[in-house]
Amino acid sequence: MTATTPEAAPAGGSPGRSGLSPRQKQRIGRWIQYAIFLLIVVLVAVFADWPKIQEHFLDADAARETVPDVFRALGNTVIYTVLAYALGIVVGLVIALMRLSSVGPYRWFGLVFIEIFRGLPALLILILVAFGLPIAFPTFSDPPGGIYTQIALGLGLVGAAYMAETIRAGIQAVPKGQMEAARSLGMSYSRAMLTIVIPQAFRIVIPPLTNELVLLFKDSSLVFVLGVTSTQVELTKFGEQVAVRLADVTPIMVAGTAYLIITIPLGYLVRRLEARQAKAR
Q1: What is the architecture of the domain spanning 59-280?
Q2: Contact 49, 226 (CB under 8 A)
Q3: Which ranges does the record mark as transmembrane (predicted)?
Q4: Rounded CA gap, 257 and 70, in Å?
Q5: Which H or E run includes 28?
Q6: What is the DSSP letter of 140?
Q7: What are phi and psi of 13, to 5 degrees?
Q8: CA dihedral 98, 208, 129, 73 (to 10 degrees)
């Protein structure tokens, strides 16, 4: 008997019962998705009340009245975010080192801190800081820095819980040989950790830490619960106040645009950093 040689399968894969190869099926499925998306866009464009949308969401007069003051609110939002982020980095690093400590109580404290401040809503943490701490510690009723200290503490502790786990993962990602080499040169554990391991860990976790900055920037909208004044108002509260006064949603759209001015470049930066790290690997 002579052995028969099987015919080569076509480039797109062998056809199934329908006579179509897997690649052809995939292409047809993709075009169906495009068609559904296009249909949804057309339906939205046809049935939307564009005159009312322009009147209530894109009112030029309301936008002109909002824009001059929106930059003050944006500046406040940036200040709140930077203060909270700076505190979060410092506390997060300490908690991360406690989680990696060989001392049991340190590890337990770090774990409890992370679980509490990651498990509770940021809004609740801000309320506890603003109204709970002054009751428990009367001297905190008027802390140095006033509301800026309360915001930094409330948002910073929440950010620290997330950043601690990110930094811990970065430290553990540094090859153990780095620590062993530093110790063999006579460095103490603390010095090797501070000068060798932690700098490398931060280079690894820069993208997720930058992403946490974006999240804190958006979480700053919760500051309204602290009863900020007109000069301390952040973007969301500012847009809501002006929208109520003008009976128009356009100020909220302006505030949303101000958020995007910050978050879109930061998101682009995160993607670039992640792509650079991927190439380095």
Answers
A1: Orthogonal Bundle (1.10)
A2: no
A3: 31-48, 78-97, 109-135, 147-167, 188-206, 252-271
A4: 10
A5: helix 22-47
A6: G
A7: 95, 160
A8: 150
For 61-115, write each residue's pLDDT tens digit.
788 888 888 888 888 899 999 999 999 999 999 999 999 988 889 999 999 999 9
Domains of the chain by residue range: 59-280
Collapsing DSSP states into helix, strand and coil, what is residue 14?
Answer: coil
Q: What are the residues whose beta carbons fall under 8 Å from the beta carbon of 49, sequence distance 6 or more?
A: none
Say what the alpha-carbon torsion angle 191, 195, 198, 199 is, to the nearest 10 degrees.
180
Q: Which residues of 229-267 are buried (b: 16+ CB within 10 A; e: fewer)?
A: eeebbbbbbbbbbbbeeeebbbbbbbbeebbeebeeeee
| pLDDT per position as a tens digit, 138-171 | 777 777 777 888 888 989 999 999 999 999 999 9
User: For residue 58, what are the CA distances in angstroms to 242, 245, 249, 250, 254?
Assistant: 14, 16, 8, 5, 9
* Contact (CB, 8 A) for 105 and 171: no
Contact (Cβ atoms closer than 8 angstroms) between residue 63 and residue 250: yes
Calculate the dihedral angle through the C-alpha atoms of 86, 191, 172, 177, rounding to the nearest 10 degrees.
Answer: 150
Q: CB–CB of 59/251 below 8 Å?
A: no
What is the rounded distance in angstroms from the CA atom of residue 166 to the CA atom of residue 156?
A: 15
CB 165 within 8 A of CB 114: yes
Q: What DSSP state is assigned to residue 249?
A: S
State the angle between helix axes of 250-280 and 198-219 in degrees (0 to 180), rounded to the nearest 10: 160
Phi-psi region of 137 (alpha: psi -120 to 50; beta: other; left: phi over 0): beta
- Nearest Cα to 15, choosing from 24, 6, 4, 5? 24
